[in-house]
């Protein structure tokens, strides 16, 4: 048996003195289990999306999600996932966690490292992966008099995915060999394209051929007046402009349909069987069941739940995955990191009221402008999808008894 590094031995001796604080755990599911630790809400949602994709191909895999604080609601993405607060890195808690959960694979995020926990799950056969390592200081929860065990903690990871070259250099300086390192960009939420009937898409594309279209997706009733006002103003410059209104809920849809009927706009009722013609200015539906169709037809998308506070916005990667120029309001706290990435890439633009929304629509009606934003959004989505694909392939290889060598190290 190889001798433990002195820094790790000293840390484990310190961790032995921490009292057990973890609450009783629910029963472990049968079969393979993937454990994921989220640094913050954004990474929790990204990890949930990653595990959901894994489970689509391997439904027998169960999931456990931990965090140092409260986790966001992940029930829509991972309805059967166990969620737990992670106790401090004491040896008793680490041993209890490893013995009870016995994870096959662990995904860790963040710059805070738990050497005691890593040592115990690794000894039990867990393959550990760090996702989204940054060029930032690594932290180990120990007082200054305990020798720095950063390198020992990082050595437990079978693979570390670094955000950029600077993060790779920091990891190399910490003594991590290249065979364990990958440069893969930041961990981010990803969204696959929504389903759509190919026949219906072809029919509607032919019907609307040549018309400029914009989509207001997952709209709340309280935003509809601003959206309709913006559309009326934009049609002054683009007379054939068509707005497709898709509500967030059927309840919103019924209220929005009433607002459209009372407006001066010529509307078609999709749920009532209406097909838009040359005179139609608004196509309104009362649910989002065919949103995949409208995403494919509209080069410009405004994402609802963002003009008024209280909703937190909608996932912009869902729309970006279909190739669209994105507009959104200022209230997007639930997906702030994704919006920030898209804005920095030139794929999304903020609007604050019907006036700025009308201006943005009028500018993006020019096909080249919308196409440039859509292409930038697709690049962002593709980067996240590439990391998801690589990690998924690595996880399957390990679960099937491989050594991960086919998902290799940095060049």
The CATH homology group name of the largest domain: 3-Deoxy-D-manno-octulosonic-acid transferase, N-terminal domain
Overall strand count = 14
Overall tally of domains: 2
Radius of gyration in whole Å, from Cα?
25 Å
Percent of residues in β-strands: 15-25%
Order of helices and strands: HEHEEHEHEHEHEHEHEHEEHEHEHEHH
Structural class: alpha/beta
| CATH fold type of the largest domain | Rossmann fold
Major sheet size, sense and barrel closure = 7 strands, parallel
**Any low-confidence stretches, pLDDT <50, length ≥5?**
none
What is the CATH top level name of the largest domain? Answer: Alpha Beta
Shape: elongated
**Order of strands side by side in the largest beta sheet?**
3-2-1-4-5-6-7
Question: Gist?
Answer:
By secondary structure, this protein is α/β, with parallel strands linked by helices. It is 39% helix and 16% strand.
């Amino acid at each position: 048996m190889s001798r433990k590094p002195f820094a790790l031995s000293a840390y484990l001796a310190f961790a032995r003195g921490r009292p057990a604080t973890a609450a009783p755990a629910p029963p472990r599911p049968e079969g393979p289990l993937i454990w994921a630790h989220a640094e913050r809400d954004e990474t929790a949602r990204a990890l949930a999306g990653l595990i959901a994709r894994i489970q689509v191909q391997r439904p027998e895999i169960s999931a456990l999600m931990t965090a140092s604080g409260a986790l966001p609601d992940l029930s829509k993405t991972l309805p059967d996932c166990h969620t737990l607060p992670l106790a401090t890195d004491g040896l008793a808690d680490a041993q209890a966690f490893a013995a009870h959960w016995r994870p096959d694979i662990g995904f860790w995020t963040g710059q805070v490292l738990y050497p005691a926990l890593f040592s115990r799950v690794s000894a039990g056969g867990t393959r550990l992966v760090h996702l989204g390592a940054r060029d930032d200081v690594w932290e180990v929860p120990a007082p200054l008099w305990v020798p720095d065990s950063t390198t020992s903690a990082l050595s437990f990871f079978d693979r570390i995915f670094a955000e950029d070259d600077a993060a790779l250099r920091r990891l190399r300086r910490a003594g991590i060999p290249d065979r364990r390192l990958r440069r893969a960009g930041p961990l981010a939420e990803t969204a696959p394209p929504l389903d759509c009937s190919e026949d219906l898409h072809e029919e509607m594309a032919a019907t609307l051929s040549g018309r400029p279209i914009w989509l207001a997706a997952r709209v709340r009733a309280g935003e509809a007046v601003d959206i309709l006002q913006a559309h009326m103003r934009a049609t002054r410059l683009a007379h054939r402009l068509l707005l497709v209104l898709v509500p967030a809920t059927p309840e919103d849809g019924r209220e929005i349909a009433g607002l459209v009927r009372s407006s001066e706009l010529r509307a078609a009722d999709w749920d009532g069987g209406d097909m838009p013609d040359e005179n139609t200015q608004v196509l309104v539906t009362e649910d989002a069941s065919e949103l995949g169709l409208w995403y494919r037809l509209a080069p410009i998308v405004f994402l609802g739940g963002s003009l008024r506070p209280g909703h937190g916005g909608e996932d912009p990667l869902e729309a970006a995955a279909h190739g669209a120029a994105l507009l959104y309001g200022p209230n997007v706290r639930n997906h702030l990191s994704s919006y920030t990435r898209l804005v920095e890439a030139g794929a999304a633009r903020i609007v604050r009221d019907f006036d700025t929304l009308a201006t943005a629509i009028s500018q993006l009606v020019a096909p080249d402008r919308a196409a440039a934003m859509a292409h930038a959004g697709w690049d962002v989505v593709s980067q996240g999808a590439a990391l998801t694909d690589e990690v998924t392939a690595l996880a399957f290889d390990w679960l099937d008894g491989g050594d991960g060598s086919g998902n290799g190290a940095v060049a």
